Amino acid sequence: MRRRDFIQLSGLGLGALMGASVPVLGEAVPVGRLLEPRADAAQKKKLADVALNAAKSKGATYADVRIGRYLQQFLFTREMKVQNITNAESYGVGIRVIVDGTWGFAATSDVRPDAIARCAETAVAIAKANAKIQKEPVDLAPQKGVGEVSWKTPLKKNAFEVPVQEKIDLLMKVNDAAMKNGAGFVTSNLFFINEQKYFASTDGSYIDQDIHRIWPTFTVTAVDRQAGKFKTRDALSSPMGMGYEYLDGLATDKIAGPNGLIGYRNSYDMVEDATVAAKQAREKLTAKTVQPGKYDLVLDPNHLGLTIHESIGHATELDRVLGYEANYAGTSFATLDKWKSKNFQYGSKLVNIVADKTQPYTLGTVGYDDEGVPTKEWDLIKDGILVNYQATRDQVKILGGTESNGCSYADNWDSIQFQRMPNVSLKPATEKRSASDMVKGVDKGIYILGRGSYSIDQQRYNFQFGGQLFYEIKNGEIAGMLDDVAYQSNTQEFWNSCAQLCDQDDYRTFGSFFDGKGQPSQISAVSHGCPTTRFNGVNVINTGRKI
Amino acid sequence: MAILTKEEAKKILDKVLSYAKADETSVSLSGNRTGNIRYARNTVSTSGETDNLALAVTSVFGKKVGSATINEFDDQSLEKTVRRAEEIARLAPENPEYVPMLGPQKYIETASYAESTAKMDPAFRAQAAFDSIDPCSKKNLTAAGYMEDTTGFTAIANSKGLFGYNPYTSVDFSVTTRTADGTGSGYASRDYNDVSKLSTKETTQIAMQKALASTKARALEPGKYTVILEPTAAGDLIGLMMNSLDARNAEEGRSFLSRKGGGTRLGEKFFDERITIYSDPANVEIPGSPFVGGGGGRFGGGGGVDGRPQEKTLWVENGIIKNMSYSRYWAQSKGVKATPPPSGFIMQGGSQSLADLIKSTQKGILVTRFWYIRAVDPQTLLYTGLTRDGTFYVENGQIKYPVKNFRFNESPVIMLNNVEALGKPVRTGGVLIPPMKIRDFTFSSLSDAV
After folding, report:
1. Which stretches make up the Metalloprotease TldD/E N-terminal domain (chain A) (predicted)?
2. CATH for B6-212 (3.30.2290.10, 3.60.20.10, 2.102.10.10, 3.90.79.10)
């Protein structure tokens, strides 16, 4: 049984430009429950076999079962107040079967053997009912069973083991730092997620996984009441596939950028960022409004990650390309004929985009996907040419492939798994180059950092992005802060204007923690790595208005 | 059985409250049965039905608040949940903004429940999908659609004697049809409480017409245009503005309703004088919840027990801002009435149909819907987004030809100052809103998307 609530946030929380609500999945439980173990792998194997045997005996030619425990701990504060702390647990079983070439799916929160067997029978019955109107029989790419295996997010500090008080203390320090440095208001949040997933299939796989994710974030607001103006600055953190150690703020993971700006790699100093953010929010109140026109853009990884997500990540989802998302998210301009031509110039020769579910510290990284496929890395765009898509087992044959690239994911045990985005990342340059070096080569440009407003059409051609911080570049130097900046482009034109990349030392990951897709909607979390990158001659508009 | 009667629900809530030992306790109980069917490429892709019955207990000691939820209803489980909420509350940090619970309230009855919707079953849904797919297949169009129906109830109670119960049903349907060559796309959607008002066939016909009429779109230069916004397009933009009426944000100086020099724009003329917007849970076309809290929306239970009655509230009258919404805490600290935010709204219009609005237009763009609308600047409520699934050039009162989709950058505040004409309000997305003709609407670039 599902309880999917949304926590409404007051004030301009969680990014002033995002929807002010976050999804909570499961039952509210005391914090101690989050650390109590449920069934062990041996017990889960027994339950999984009940499901698989019941499905097979009723006529399923294939079955998989996911016994899932999904834990969430979310903390919300504003100024010196704790607004809300939620601890949630969702536990149950989802069973997917193929009968007569048709999928059937059923789920139950009752994890006793007889209930699981009944659930498997329901899944078979649904498949049989749907088979009557089936026009395209399911054709699964082969997947050899992997036997009994396990995988764990490599973490140093399980966030669920850190006392709640320590977390509150941190957020109060963050808020205090922001208020002392000029913020009028501040909201800060910590999000922790742990997926304990057991997958088994009739292929002979029994996979036990323990996956952790973390996202610390805040929004600082500066107000000038006399002028009737307010400006916000969101955290420059990234959600990560890590434990609480992400909050250690290690000096070795800080990257010195142009104009004294600090970038964070795999360790984040939240108090330091809040201090800087408050000063920057105040500076925004009097920043120069941008002159619209063509500029060379220097895009920080914490900004460019979202552009990659929207204009490449979603565009290369095979289910969108095929039309399965036509009524909601849309289709894609990256059609099969463009891929088949082997010469569709998605971007300039510098653009090498890899998909992976293996990169350390990222949100997409797991050992196996939600249909038991071992994860890997593959090319989506090579030397600027579109070469592949994201696919699941029942899609990959359309591409002439014989092996899924492991993109199946369900956001809960009672959601049916479908194709979701892996990490999609831009490879850095092999030659040495820092962001400061890059700025030096730009005559008329804008340096953009942070996640801002974003919008893209249903086929992923035309987009508009804002940001958190904008700096004018004049003759190779930062010439001060700009305001009211957004850039508009067309995906292919934009990626073909990619003119220069920074190197591996500058490479960082951006993340999307609550990415939505499907009807009914499911969330997923995904990272996008890239270095600071230069794009030439991009159209910048001025978003200032008077009302 | 996920749908309990008022008496059955009250019995459970009373029992839960009888276990309570906290200073204050509230309980919400919500149940629903939700069914859906999804199709794409002219074939059903997924369908399902889920039952939910969930109870949430909130316990309060002083200003320490704790909540726990459960979906088992035997006495032992209920008592355990109360103890759990109390344990969580004792360990919680103080919430300085906590306001004591409300006593008994009077709630109106709303027309939000329809037996026809409650009776929907998998066969009904499959037929509804077939009625949408079949005409598309016959015309060589590709349909992708989704229908979701919910039958449910919400019951709330607290240790101060408050009790409320609200049964409801809803059905949402949307379909996108595309031409085989991918050069035309049309969309239509409907939402009702009573499914007997829904014809997926007729709705799909509209999407089909738009798909067929939108092929061979021509490119127009971006710029400022007179637009005729169909209710779906207008509702999405104005709905975002209606979600931004929070008084606290305005008084804190961080809202489009904040005033230069301090204070708010309450009582000021802000829009064209023809603009009047109100909310009314008793409206029979878009009946709302009679009370705040307890969940009951499409995302199931939870949400805690706020308990304030929803009443008819005037938000904008003849262009003047008449009300802003308050949390109970903020209203108490300001000594004003705690008007809750609206759930659904009604914008008054005229008597003209969409066709009349087109007929009276010399030059303009007809917009079926907007897509991917995102805030650009919360200060001015500037939004960006794109037209989608049916955008047409209108000249001398007639639709002349389809045009390529545009990106817009516009604020609903500016839009509602540039009103040329308002049509007859219709229901879309849970609100009642007229089609509207707006001058100087800002399209900033072209999109190749179909």
Report:
1. 63-127
2. 3.30.2290.10
Q: Which of A285, A315, A341 is the last residue of a domain?
A: A285
In whole angstroms, what is the distance from residue B195 CA to residue B417 CA?
Answer: 36
Asked if A17's CB is within 8 angstroms of B375's CB, the reply is: yes
Residue-number span of the structural domain to which A223 is assigned: 4-285
Nearest to B448 among A103, A461, A541 (CB): A461
Across B427-439, average pLDDT: 97
Q: A322 and B126: CB-CB below 8 Å?
A: no
pLDDT the model gives residue B226: 98
Q: Is residue A547 part of a domain?
A: no
CA distance B317 to A147: 68
Closest of B227, B189, B447 to residue A458, by C-alpha: B447
pLDDT score of A4: 47
Assess whether the previous peptide bond of B290 is cis (omega < 30° from 0): no
From the list A16, A185, A461, which residue is nearest B252 (CB)? A185
SS (HEC) of A309-344? HHHHHCCCEHHHHHCCCCCCCCCCCCCHHHHHCCCC
Chain B residues with CB inside 8 Å of A323's CB? 40-41, 142, 144, 178
The pLDDT tens digits for B356-373 are: 999 999 999 999 999 999
Identify which of B107, B77, B68, B94 has the alpha carbon closest to the alpha carbon of residue B302: B68
- State the average pLDDT over residues A35-42: 90
Residues A281 and A313 in one domain: no
A242 and A304 inside one domain: no
Q: How many CA atoms lie within 13 A of A430 on its CB side?
A: 2
Q: Which amino acid is at A17?
A: L
ipTM of the complex: 0.94
Whether residue B434 contacts residue B346, with contact meaning beta carbons closer than 8 Å, is answered with no
Range scoring the smallest mean pLDDT among A134-143, A437-446, B300-309, B358-367: B300-309
Among the partner residues B91, B92, B447, nearest to A457 by beta-carbon distance? B447
User: Rounded to a whole number, what is the distance in Å from the CA of B28 to chain A's nearest CA?
Assistant: 13
A326 with B144: Cβ contact below 8 A: yes
Looking at residues A343-359, what average pLDDT do you find? 98
Inter-chain contact A326–B176, Cβ cutoff 8 Å?
Answer: yes
pTM for this prediction: 0.95
User: Which chain B positions have a beta carbon within 8 Å of A229's beta carbon?
Assistant: 379
Residues A100 and A248 in one domain: yes
Residues of B in contact with A136 (CB under 8 A): 41, 43
**What's the confidence (pLDDT) of residue A21?**
62
More confident residue, B75 or A1: B75
Residue B313 CB neighbour total at 10 angstroms:
18
What are the angstrom distances between the C-alpha of A522 and each of A216, A369, A411, A417, A445? 22, 16, 6, 10, 38
For residues A245 and A358, membership in a common domain is answered with no
A214 and A250 assigned to the same domain: yes
